[in-house]
Amino acid sequence: MRIDYEVRGFGYGMRNWVISSGSVASFDRLDDELLLSPFPWAGGKSNEERPWLAVMVLFVDSGYEPDDVYDYCRRRPGLTIPTKGDPGPRLKPLQPSDLETATERRLSRYKRIKYKGMQLLIVDTSYFKDQVTGWVEPRMDEGGKVIADPLTLFYNEIPEYYFTEFTNEHKVKFRDTKGNVRWQWRPVSTGAATHSLDTAVLTAAAAYYKGVHYLRKPGDKPARAAAGARKKVRLSDLQRKRRMR
Predict the structure, then answer these.
(1) Phi, psi of 175 (to 5 degrees)
(2) How far apart are CA 34 and CA 44, in angstroms?
(3) 73-119 pLDDT, tens per residue?
(4) What global pTM score does this model have?
(5) 71: burial class by Cβ within 10 Å (0-12, 13-18, 19+)?
(6) C-alpha dihedral sign at 14, 4, 56, 37
(7) What contacts 165, CB < 8 A, 6 or more positions away?
C-alpha cells in the first residue's frame, strides 16, 4: 500500500503554505506523520511561545482501497473524511453522499450498517485543479506586470519530484458526444504520475470544506458590503403581491 499525503496551511485571502508532503505504507504511519505530530512554525518558536499547528481535517481518497479508507475514517469521525474524485464540472465543488447508500450495490446490508451516518464527499477535481494551479502563478495586469505574488509558498526541503508530478496534467479542449466544446484536465503523457497534483487538490477541497474562503482579517468587511445593504423581502409579501395580480 502507498498513501501519498500533503499538509497545507491556509491564511487570509486564500494565501497558503505547503508544510509537508510525502508517502507512507500504512494508515498507522499516516497517523504518525499527520495526526499525532504537531507542525512547528518556520520561525523556530517553541510550542510554549507559540502553539504549534495541527491538522484540522484530513481528506482521504477512497478510489483504490475504498473499504480500508472507510474503516480508517470511521474510527476518526469528523477528523478524517473519505472522498471520491469526479472530473466534473459539477454544480457544487463538494457534494456529500450517504456512505451507507453509496455502497449498497457492492456490500451486504450487514457490512454496510457500520457506515450508517457517515458521508462520502464527491470532489469536483476540475474545480480544485484550476484553483491550485492558479495559486502558484503570480497575478499580472493587462500589460504583463506582476501586481501580486503567488498565493502558494512551499517549504524549503520540498523534493523536486513534487513539482514534476504537480505539472504532469494540463487542460485540453475536446468535443463531447453531443459535439459541445469542453475543457478537461488530462495527463501530459500516458502513465504520467500526478500524485502531487492529486494531494494538492484534496488539501484545497478540505480548505473549502472548512470555509477558509470566508476568512477575513479583523476589521475587513465582506466585498459585497461595498455595494450597499440589500433590501430584505419577506416571502409572505411576495405571495401577497402575486395574489393581487
Answers:
(1) -110, 130
(2) 19
(3) 999 998 999 999 999 889 999 999 988 787 877 888 777 888 888 89
(4) 0.84
(5) middle
(6) negative
(7) 193, 194, 195, 196, 197
**Cα–Cα distance list, 109 to 25, 55, 64, 77, 114 (Å):** 31, 33, 22, 21, 9
**Helix spans in the chain (H):** 27-30, 66-74, 99-102, 109-112, 125-135, 160-166, 195-209, 235-244
Burial letters for 39-54: b for 16+ Cβ neighbours within 10 Å, e otherwise?
eeeeeeeeeeeeeeee
Task: For the chain, give every domain's residue range.
Answer: 3-244
What gap in Å lies between CA 111 and CA 1, rounded to an integer? 23
CA atoms of 139 and 145, how far apart (whole Å): 8
Q: List the grid coordinates of 194.
A: 500526478
